[in-house]
Amino acid sequence: MQPLIVTAAIIRSQTGILLTRRPEGSRHAGMWEFPGGKLEPGESPEQCLRRELLEELDLPVEVGQVFEVVYHRYDWGAVLILAYECRALSRRIRNLEVAEHRWVPPKELPEYDILAADAPIVRKLTF
Ligand SMILES: Nc1nc2c([nH]c(=O)n2[C@@H]2O[C@H](COP(=O)(O)OP(=O)(O)OP(=O)(O)O)[C@@H](O)[C@H]2O)c(=O)[nH]1
């Protein structure tokens, strides 16, 4: 099986890095993650991130450099996560498809239940 290709946004503000919590009824419900989602056919990672951030948070973003790439096997299958530095183009966020969102100072990231695949990203952010 090919891994699921997933994009994730690293968005920084003066108060921290943006985390979102997965809604009830989704895989890994209640866990925290970086906003983003699965790459759709024909889409570039940048297009995917812009679409997902609008769908989930009504947040327009500018997509920058790759921050980290992670391959991880869950018991249900593998993911290839492409994490990009992104810049929020609005201050307003709406929790459209997430349970909640939070701006988390890097040193507090280890206190959150973040998806296992994101561990290398969290390490790099807290380093
Ligand atoms: N968005 C996001 N997904 C992640 C991260 N880390 C991680 O393991 N994943 C996994 O990657 C997959 C992304 O799927 P998703 O359900 O968020 O994507 P989506 O919005 O396109 O899905 P849907 O439209 O089917 O609901 C999930 O299985 C999720 O568990 C992360 O930091 N951000």
UniProtKB/TrEMBL annotation:
Which EC number applies? Answer: 3.6.1.55
**Is the DNA damage keyword given for this protein?**
yes
Task: State the source organism's domain of life.
Answer: Bacteria
Reactions it catalyzes: 8-oxo-GTP + H2O = 8-oxo-GMP + diphosphate + H(+); 8-oxo-dGTP + H2O = 8-oxo-dGMP + diphosphate + H(+)
Q: Which cofactor does it need?
A: Mg(2+)
Q: Name one Pfam family in it.
A: NUDIX
Listed CDD domains: NUDIX_MutT_NudA_like (cd03425)
The record's section on InterPro entries has: MutT-like, Nudix_hydrolase, NUDIX_hydrolase-like_dom_sf, NUDIX_hydrolase_CS, NUDIX_hydrolase_dom
Keywords recorded for this protein, A-Z:
DNA damage, DNA repair, DNA replication, Hydrolase, Magnesium, Metal-binding, Mutator protein
Q: Which residues form the Nudix hydrolase domain?
A: 1-127
Q: Where is the signal peptide?
A: none
Name the family: Belongs to the Nudix hydrolase family.
* The name this protein goes by in its record: 8-oxo-dGTP diphosphatase
Organism of provenance = Desulfuromonas versatilis
